[in-house]
Amino acid sequence: MQARGQRIRDQRERCGFKLTTFARLIGISPAWLSRIERGQGDPSPDVLRRIALLLQRERVAREAIAAITYDKEDEGSDEHHPDG
Hints:
This protein is mainly alpha-helical.
């Protein structure tokens, strides 16, 4: 349980979520999330699913933003941009 909790904490922090914000977004109390991350609580499968879905969405969103930013930097100019 403790290793799982540490992985959750690491991924949450990597995504830039504060504990209280993340807890609110997945529908649990910050105290319960803290216990899960310290390996002192055994979350239900539903809570684990909500954690995984939020972390997955955040990772996908960050990857999409990075890809868009990278593509835009490669273009070098706005010659082909309809507003440019």
